[in-house]
Structure formats: structure tokens, C-alpha cells
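Q: Please design a sequence for this.
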């Protein structure tokens, strides 16, 4: 297809509202602003003051607030919502983030660890209609059927429930341009590498009559911004399409070869994905991002490898961290 014209922006800030890790001792720098050590206060009668300092929630899920500035216009989007109904809302409150100012929601895919916080968001949002961009396969029933163990069905999103809460559901397989053409949602990602083959056979989907392997998770999509003079900023949820596939797909869609930043889950954790870590790391090293913030499902082996291969770009992720990128 012809390249999509992605209007450049002057500033983008990605605030991780929920991630697998919360580290209150991480240092900030000119790229990363860390959450304060004292993020909140909770009642605790065992202390003399009757209260104690609390941090932020960490769980196996991902949610990020994306703020894009173009000239004098600023737009705020929510990308995924975490695992539990309350973690994202609690963290937002402790960070002073007003979730009622969100102008749209984007779901990276239908897995419950990215959509669980929609219930909490609905409670905070009130009755105001809110656009939600997603792939039509987010409603598919899925399960994990590990040999020798009972199959575990995964929570399935309800379109009826979301529309009943006032979300304006927008289903798209193709790329979407939001925010006056300055934010790209990739839609389905082309699978072009020979090593990123997706989920193991235990990950299954219901086809209407039977369960079948669902390796591709075709509803997986990413958010892309063109930072003026610096290149692409790519935000992933789990990266089920493959981190390298996603980056190259964004480059093809936009015609912009430079990768400035890659943030989010890269799904390299666990023994099933260990064999592709080296090739993924090498491809990302060749892409040469200025900022690399792998989170969520990336896994400790891949984190170590990426930190060693791209020491100037790699930054540890943590709930509450904000990454401010300026043209």
C-alpha cells in the first residue's frame, strides 16, 4: 500500500499506568520521570501516626496514557487498561492523572490483562461517550490448554457490556489515523520475519464449533507517532505480532525508516520464546532506537539481553514512569 501520511508531532509523553513492576527507587533522567516514592497514604494502625506511605500497583497487565502535542493542541489517549478493575484507577489517582480527560481508548488486543481496567474506567468516566478503537477479533473466546492440565478459559470481552457503559466501539482491521492524522493505530500487523511465530499451541481460540490453536493473535496492534525530526515512537501492548514485525510494519506504513523509541510489552518471556530472543535483540540493535523501554511480558532473559545490546537506549519500565519525548 502507499505510505500513510502520519503528521509529525512536537511532543509525546507515555505514562505507564500499570506494568508488571513497580520500583520506587529507580532514578529518573532527561527521558524518564519516575513516580514519587510517596505515591499515596493508607490507613495503618500499627504505625504511630495511624497511616503509612504506599506506592503504586504492579500486576501482570499493561496500561499507558499517551499525551500528544501538536502545536498548541494536546490530545490524551488511553492505550490498554491493565489486568484488574481497580489497579489503573488507583495508580492514576495517586499520580494525579485525571482519567475523565481521556479523549479515546485504544485496545492493543483482546486479552484480559489489557482490558480488565475498563470496568474501573467506566466508573470514573460517568455517562460521557468515549470512542474505543479495537480489532474485531477482540471478542473471540480463548483458552490455554496445556497438555496434562485442565484447560483454562480466558475472560472474554463483552461488546454488549462495553456499549452499555457508553463506549463507542470502533472496530477496525485496517490502519486508523487518529488525532487529526498524528496518531496511527496499525491494525493487523504483517508477519514478515521467519522467527516470530507467535504463541505456542496451548493458546487456543473457539472457531464456532471447536477449539483450535491461535498462534497469531491477529487482533494485536500498536500505536505509532511520528516525532518531528526524530522518527517513529512505537507503543506495544504485548507485541504478539513480534516486536520486529511491528517496527517494520510501522516503517512500511509510514515510509519513515527511523525508529526513535519502542515502549511496551515484547512478549519474550517464558521458555517458549527464549529461542527467538537473540534474533529479536539483534534486529532491534540494528534498528537503533534512541529509547527502548521493554515492559510487561518481555521477560527477564530478554530484558538482560536488550540492556546489554543497547545500553544507551534501554530504560527499565515501572508502573508510574513517564517518558517525555520532544521534537
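A: Design:
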Amino acid at each position: 500500500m502507499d505510505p500513510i501520511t502520519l503528521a509529525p508531532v512536537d511532543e509525546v509523553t507515555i505514562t505507564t499506568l500499570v506494568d508488571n513492576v513497580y520500583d520506587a527507587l529507580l532514578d529518573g533522567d532527561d527521558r524518564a520521570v519516575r513516580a514519587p516514592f510517596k505515591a499515596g497514604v493508607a490507613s495503618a494502625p500499627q504505625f504511630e501516626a495511624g497511616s503509612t506511605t504506599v506506592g503504586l500497583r504492579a500486576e501482570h497487565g499493561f496500561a499507558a496514557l499517551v499525551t500528544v502535542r501538536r502545536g498548541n493542541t494536546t490530545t490524551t489517549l488511553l492505550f490498554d487498561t491493565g489486568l484488574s478493575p481497580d489497579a489503573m484507577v488507583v495508580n492514576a489517582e495517586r499520580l494525579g492523572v485525571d482519567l475523565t480527560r481521556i479523549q479515546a481508548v485504544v485496545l492493543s488486543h483482546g486479552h484480559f490483562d489489557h482490558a480488565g481496567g475498563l470496568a474501573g474506567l467506566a466508573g470514573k468516566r460517568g455517562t460521557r461517550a468515549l470512542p474505543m478503537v479495537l480489532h474485531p477479533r477482540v471478542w473471540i473466546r480463548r483458552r490455554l490448554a496445556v497438555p496434562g492440565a485442565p484447560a483454562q478459559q480466558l475472560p472474554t470481552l463483552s461488546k454488549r457490556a462495553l456499549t452499555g457503559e457508553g463506549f463507542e466501539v470502533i472496530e477496525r482491521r485496517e490502519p486508523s489515523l487518529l488525532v487529526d492524522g498524528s496518531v496511527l493505530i496499525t491494525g493487523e500487523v504483517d508477519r514478515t520475519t521467519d522467527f516470530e511465530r507467535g504463541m505456542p499451541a496451548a493458546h487456543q481460540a473457539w472457531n464456532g464449533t471447536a477449539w483450535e490453536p491461535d498462534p497469531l493473535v491477529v487482533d494485536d496492534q500498536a500505536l505509532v507517532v511520528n516525532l518531528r525530526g526524530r522518527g517513529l515512537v512505537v507503543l506495544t501492548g504485548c507485541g504478539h505480532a513480534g516486536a520486529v514485525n511491528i517496527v517494520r510494519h510501522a516503517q512500511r506504513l509510514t515510509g519513515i525508516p527511523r525508529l526513535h523509541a519502542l515502549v511496551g510489552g515484547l512478549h519474550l518471556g517464558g521458555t517458549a520464546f527464549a529461542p527467538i530472543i537473540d534474533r529479536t535483540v539483534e534486529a532491534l540493535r540494528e534498528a537503533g532506537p534512541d529509547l527502548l523501554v521493554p515492559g510487561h511480558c518481555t521477560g527477564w532473559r530478554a530484558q538482560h539481553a536488550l540492556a546489554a545490546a543497547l545500553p544507551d537506549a534501554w530504560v527499565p519500565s515501572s508502573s508510574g514512569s513517564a517518558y517525555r519525548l520532544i521534537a
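Q: Thanks. Anything notable?
A: The chain has a mean pLDDT of 96. The two ends are 28 Å apart (CA to CA).
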